[in-house]
Amino acid sequence: MKPRASDHRGIEKQGKKVAGKTVKASAEEKKSLEVPVMLAISNPVPWNATKNPYLYQVKVSIRTEDGQTDEMVQPLGLRTVSVDPGRGFVLNGKTMQIKGVSRHQDRKGKGWALSPEDEEKDIRLIADMGADGLRTGHYPASTNIYNLCDRTGLIVWSEVSNVNLVRDTPEFRENNRLQAREMIYQHWNHPSICMWGIFNEIGHQPEASTKGVDMEAELIELNKFVKETDPTRMTVGATNQPGRKKLNNIPDHIAFNSYPGWYGGGPETMKGNLNGFIRDHASRGIAISEYGHGASIGMHENPPKRPSPTGFWHPEEWQTHAHEINYKCIKERPEVWGSFVWNMFDFGSAARFEGENPGINDKGLVTYDRKTPKDAYFFYKANWSPKPTVYITSRRFAERTEKTVPVKVYSNASSVKLSVNGKAVGSARPDELKRAVWPEVALKPGVNTITATATIGGKTYTDSCKWTLKPGKEGEKGSERYQDPSIKKYK
Questions:
Q1: Which DSSP category does 45 fall into?
Q2: Residues 6+ apart with CB under 8 A from 214
Q3: Distance between CA atoms of 122 and 389, rounded to whole angstroms?
Q4: CA 349 centroid distance within chain
Q5: pLDDT class of 67 with cuts at 50, 70, 90
Q6: Nearest by Cα to 163 from 237, 104, 102
Q7: 201 is an active site residue
């Protein structure tokens, strides 16, 4: 073969070349050739998540004597990551607690056939809420998603499709390695990807044919394979079985799927759960890989009572109430290096017959069609995003039977003013969870306009909604429900 030149045209910053080198090499016929090249950047700017997701571009060209034959452009972000068991996630030497969400990619009317524009909207909704982490449950995402995360600054947990069980057959092991290898090789250069997930809830739903199978042995080998393939990133696993110590000690770090307030105890039991997880893994730190609660935007209740997860009635108010308590528990423990809400969007789940629609998991913070962020979305936005937020909750609780109702506003303002039908009710200071609350607000018969106003950074922000009071239809004193007339019960 004729001599070839590998032209590492360099690492570019905003169109300016900051490093580069050209080397000459030749290979015999039908032989591959690796050409290692070392480049140095003076005073590099780190990729620093949402604070400054700084990206370089690496351009690699292969040329023959006759001219250019191939070129590749890849993103480059320079960052260091680790987990400190007592202080949390460490990015570029500084600790943080990842504020994350999990994402299933399907969408109403499209399934998995999403366009780049659809994916951009997903990431924009996540970023606008103020999240800085994304878990791709339970499979790798598209290259476009990772590109968007690189540019947005989301810290990504990308995982293979080991869900519920693994098998000890040669075919399964080979396929497992293939999927892990393809995920790593295809997405190696994305700075947003900080960890590889190797399993989710293994052993949760074992089949009879796997009885006696040593699933841990396969995962030990998979973890070893992933670490050898990419020694630069940590491995993680998600479990809902804290008692399986051997399984949970396989990856570098273990995270827990925990749903207090939906499954198990009340939402306040998240505190005790965290205490146990942290105690058992004090030397490694822990994360919450899943937590959440179902909700329909057309079902409302005051005061909210804990619903049955498998039942039809999933009021939006319970979702917000339980998220508030869950997140407070997480926020107070720096040993929890990250948490990932399950789920960012409602998603298809064929075996489910619960909530408003059969075949849908309604734990999303946004509806399946991506058109309506639920109240809980704005709870996180007020707590996570620096963008001014003023949002009246229970806004879709359109018909009221109680003449006196509570009003809650999520806001990151220092003070919020409330008025009803143009008349001032008073001001309230949001608490540590960004909640401004008026316990008893009087409504008049007919349509009422509720308005919240706040000044943030010298600008005035307003939100309003309309509630209709229908006297004479009161139920039990202090308790009321509303169901959107368009919802038809299927059970």
A1: P
A2: 168
A3: 20
A4: 18
A5: confident
A6: 237
A7: yes
